[in-house]
Amino acid sequence: MKQLLIICFILSFLTGCGDDTPGNTDDFDRTTLLINLSDNLILPALNGFKTNATVLNNDVAIFLNNPNPINLETLRATFETAYIAWQKASIFEIGPAENIAYRANVNTYPTDVSNITALINSGSYNLDAINNYDSKGLPAIDYLLFGSGDNDTDIIALFSTHPDKEKYKQYLSDIAEDILSKTNYVYNEWISGYDATFKSNKGNNIGSSISLFTNAFMLHYENRFRTLKIGLPTGVFSIEEQSFPELTEAYYSGISIDLIKANFNQLEKTYLGDNGVGIDDHLIGVDAEDVNSEITAQLAVIKEKLNLLTDPLTAQVVNDRPQVVEVYNEIQKLVPTLKADMFSALSIQITYSDTDGD
Amino acid sequence: MNSIKKHITTPIPIAPLVTFRVLFGFIMLISIIRFLAKGWVTQLYVEPTYYFSFIQADWFTPLSSTGMHFLFVLMGLSALGIMLGSFYKLSVFLFFVSFTYVELLDKSNYLNHYYFVSIISFLLLFVPANRAFSLDAIRKPFIKLDKIPAWCINIFKLQLIIVYFYAGAAKLNTDWLIHAMPLKIWLPAHADFPIIGNLLTKEWVAYAFSWSGAAYDLFVPFLLLFSRTRVIAYMAVIAFHLLTRMLFPIGMFPYIMILSTLIFFSPQWHEGILRKLKDLPGFNKALKDLLGFKNLAGLEKTYHPRYKNVLAVGITLFFVLQLLLPWRYTLYDGNLFWTEQGYRFSWRVMLMEKAGHATFYIKNPETNKEAQIDIKQYLAPHQEKQMAFQPDMLLQFAHFLDKEYQKQGIIDPEIRVESYVTLNGSKSKLIIDPTIDLSEQSINLKPKNGSCHLPIIENEETIHHTINCDAFVDHSNGTNYFR
After folding, report:
1. Which of A97, A146, A224, B47 is most buried (CB neighbours < 10 A)?
2. Which of A12, A227, A288 sits opposite B258 (nearest CB)?
3. CB–CB of A349 and B249 under 8 A?
4. Residue B450: Cβ within 10 Å count
């Protein structure tokens, strides 16, 4: 008996210390949820942005070969399409995207104009340095194509007649290429291995796909969507009730509202699982229909309220701040429902960290 | 009287205490290495800019990054010292002080098992656990003991009985027993669990787990006491703790309990284990003798602590306090699970599914302008998460914000919080009256309702027409908790 106990004891350590591995039983379609998320939402979004980033690179090359108003217009249009496509890809910051800080690489704003100028003048730079994140990506292109001169002639001049035109060309080309290479990396990593990992890791513990995914979703909704896109420019954290239009996304091109709407639509679409199994079905599967209906109702309210935003947002946050605050408040209302009720119902830990529970 | 005396003064073999010491030191060493390896020292005690300290004093803050890491290394070395029985008293003292200091630094990291570790290391201070099978005994063979008074072992058994029994008693509430909450939420999420995954989605399984979990906690310490039920009870200990380890992210706690409860086994059993260890190759005859229990010098057979009476009174008081502390919640009104007044330090383990989200607002009364607070500027995610549903932490943070904004030149900032909390699957509701300026509510241990300290919301109506101090609202909607 004693020996048996000792064996039990040792066994308990050997078996217990490792994390439990998922087995093969059916579970509220969490597998179908993961498959649907990867196949119908994440991959199409990444692929979509990849295509756009490729076109963007081509049009950058065309413009740089021949800087003229027509090519600038084409490039700007391509840029805007790409920026909207980015809004769909950006909400999935997990796996390879998280590993390389994809979002921070592609879309850190406000962009640091003085640093951009310094980098261009120096002619040598490491775009992978963290302190250069705010000098590259889409916001830097936004600046170069829309804000680097007082008018289109001045902007074109930077790339055609300016003494440092070669440096400007090189920089624009480099940062466009950087976006594409990061995107290719994330996409390739996803299809070549992470996809399978994602679909098979179907537990609900910390580190499981559903946990990573919902946490990334939450982090995006609360920080990237609510705070960065609307809260900060509106100055909701300012005790002087002061707006900060310069913090607006796409400050120079002024397409902020299109971006906000595209980002919101993607969040909503993802929640609903597009036409397949989404988080909504998962909630229903665990008898939390009430949580789901509250979320869907509030999503509808927000969608409606977003129409209160008027172009350009940079002006509206200054001239019509209360209206934007109203939009912000509706977005805010959903945070506790997601963060408390949804996570609780799905029995997923809100955790950007993995400390022990009790 | 005699039987009580039997449990206190009867000389019994030292072996159970020795294995307890070795295993406790071992598992603490592992825990600390794990803590360091996971980078939690930095994450929990270096990165945050604000800490929800248990001790409200400006000086009571974490050390520098180097300091904290050094402290954890020291803690690890003292755990090693406990395990090997080397400079035992110093090791136990350093371990107890450093561990307890760290635990008191931030309420966000409070875990019952950390509290348990503090208590055990405190009790170890008073027993001669290094007087056999230890480096100390090899160094100074004359300290060796073969017997110690029974209390030296029984205090640990008593402590374990308290932990289990109170954990079981805390489960005797309607949510746990009648509604199978929160297991009804937690278990189905493990549908992918090997073999029994499918079962976990069944409602009756949640009930079975709830009831058997409560029964386990209530009875297992007593079944461990008696030799006839001990082996089966210990099997249950292993099964129960491993199952919880696999289902929930509870870290080292299951292992700590699996090892600690071995103390219930007979001295002969422990001597057998230690003898086997001694017989491992590599120990020569002389070393074996040194490691043995027999006092070679024959100077002292049993342990006679100094200040016996002081010790007796002290330890008695300690256990009286242990027995009373979990009941302090009865001094407070309201639903314990909602208000959490008197919740900690009471062995309430994995009792509820509670989550929330708090939004703080600051108003400058002079300009009448108001802003939301960017909590992330001050708190790490784990702190934000814990604070959202714990009223005392919300109040503590409000006071911190009050000071912060005063520094920024706002003379009398008004701090409000809008915190939505869900408890055991209920729809999230406000936990604190969002119209109240929390900076005006004092922080102390007095009941936080009806006395103008923390306006926890207790029913739906009060929220609308009272801004007075009775606005402590219980949203439990008819759920009566066993009090």
Report:
1. A97
2. A12
3. yes
4. 17
CB contact under 8 A, B374 and A237: yes
Backbone angles phi, psi at B280, to 5 degrees: -60, 145
For every residue of chain A, which 3-state class applies, written as one string? CHHHHHHHHHHHHHHHHCCCCCCCCCCCCHHHHHHHHHHHHHHHHHHHHHHHHHHHHHHHHHHHHCCCHHHHHHHHHHHHHHHHHHHHHCCCCCCHHHHCCHHHHHCCCCCCHHHHHHHHHHCCCCCCCHHHHHHCHHHHHHHHHHHCCCCHHHHHHHHHCCCCHHHHHHHHHHHHHHHHHHHHHHHHHHHHHHHHHHHHCCCCCCCCHHHHHHHHHHHHHHHHHHHHHHHHHHCCCCCCCCCCHHHCCCCCCCCHHHHHHHHHHHHHHHHHCCCCCCHHHHHHHCCCHHHHHHHHHHHHHHHHHHHHCCCCHHHHHHHCHHHHHHHHHHHHHHHHHHHHHHHHHHCCCCCCCCCCCC
Flag whether pLDDT at B295 surpasses 60: no
pLDDT tens string B174-208: 999 999 999 998 888 887 788 888 888 888 999 99
User: Hey, is the C-beta of A355 within 8 angstroms of any chain B C-beta?
Assistant: yes
**Do residues A343 and A336 make contact, with C-beta atoms less than 8 angstroms apart?**
no
How do strand B147-149 and strand B354-364 relate by DSSP bridges? unpaired
3-state helix, strand, coil in chain B (%, to 5): 55, 10, 35
**Predicted-complex ipTM score:** 0.84
Residue B273: predicted pLDDT:
86
Q: CA-nearest residue of chain B to A343? A: B355
Q: What is the pLDDT of residue B455?
A: 64
B99-112 burial, b at 16+ Cβ within 10 Å, e below that, comes to: bbbbbbbbbbbbbb
Q: Is B359 helix (H, G, I), strand (E, B) or coil?
A: strand
Phi (first) and psi of residue B226, to 5 degrees: -100, 135
Using a CB-CB distance cutoff of 8 angstroms, which residues of chain A are in contact with residue B388? 340
Q: Any CB–CB contact under 8 A between A6 and chain B?
A: yes
Closest CA to B31 of B66, B76, B62: B76
**Probe site for chain A from B31, B273, B357, B418 (most A CB atoms < 10 A):** B357
Q: A60-74, A322-336, B443-457 — which is least confidently predicted?
A: B443-457
DSSP B39: T
**Strand, helix or coil for residue B17:** helix
Provide the whole-model pTM: 0.86
Chain A contact set for B355 (CB, 8 A): 339-341, 343-344, 350
Interface of B with A in 175-234 (CB under 8 A): 185-186, 188-195, 197-198, 201, 231, 234
Measured between CA atoms, the residue of chain B closest to residue A328 is B372
Q: Do B249 and A1 touch (CB under 8 A)?
A: no
pLDDT band for position B335 (50/70/90)?
Answer: confident
Please report, for residues B158, B170, B353, B479, the alpha-carbon distance to residue B336 in angstroms, rounded to integers and kept in the order given: 26, 11, 14, 12
- Residues B86, B134: contact at Cβ < 8 Å? yes
Is B78 in the A-facing interface, judged by CB distances under 8 Å?
A: no
